[in-house]
Amino acid sequence: MRPPDGQVYRFDPGALCLELLATGGPGPFARFETLHGPSELSAWAAESRLGPCPGLTVTEPELAAVRQLRDALFLFTADHAHGRPWDPRHLELINDAAAAPPLAARIEADGSRSWAPGATGTGLLSTVARDAVDLFTGPYASRVRECAAGDCFLLFVDTSRPGRRRWCAMERCGNRAKARTHRATKA
To answer: What CA–CA distance (Å, rounded) separates 102 from 109?
Structure first.
């Protein structure tokens, strides 16, 4: 990730649907928007755990639908992470997006995974929404967390063995918290 302060660090949220949340968000998080056009959504897909999607076509209305899902998913995930009741509107939006046909995976001759021709923004949207359904109904649903740093709102799945991950990334928020604790004990 490349936050506004310029420090580059690795952030793995643990699920495709949560990777989308780092592209912007609702309200005050709109200032972090990275999906300004269809080409940015295609670039995000290629850099995500989906991998390259050659021939992916995204229209402006599909981009708007992806942003709408992302914003609803952001709020839905934050509510879930903090044990708040889910907003039925967010749940409906996720379920409606998941109902569309997803991207179709295939195996290439070299054994790698790729995507069938004809991939669209709607298929990408459905694939992300289905990942959210799998996450929030699966074994890691209780391990969805928000970074413990007071100034970081990144959401992730704690896939660590003990299940005690607190930070979005140790290289950033974890190290800053440890440095603050160290300075406080020295003072």
So the answer is: 22
Distance CA 20, CA 47 (A): 11
Instruction: Count CB-CB contacts under 10 A for residue 147.
Output: 22
Distance CA 14, CA 142 (A): 13
Domains of the chain: 16-185 (1.10.3300.10)
Residue 119 predicted with pLDDT over 80: yes
User: pLDDT tens digit string along 51-100?
Assistant: 988 889 999 999 999 999 999 999 999 999 999 999 999 999 999 999 99
Gap between the Cα atoms of 126 and 132, Å rounded? 10
Nearest to 65 by CA among 133, 131, 22, 122: 122
Report, as an integer, the average pLDDT of 96-109: 95
Contacts of 71 (CB under 8 A, 6+ apart): 24, 25, 26
Amino acid (1-letter code) at residue 145: R
| 155-157 and 113-115 beta bridge pairing | unpaired
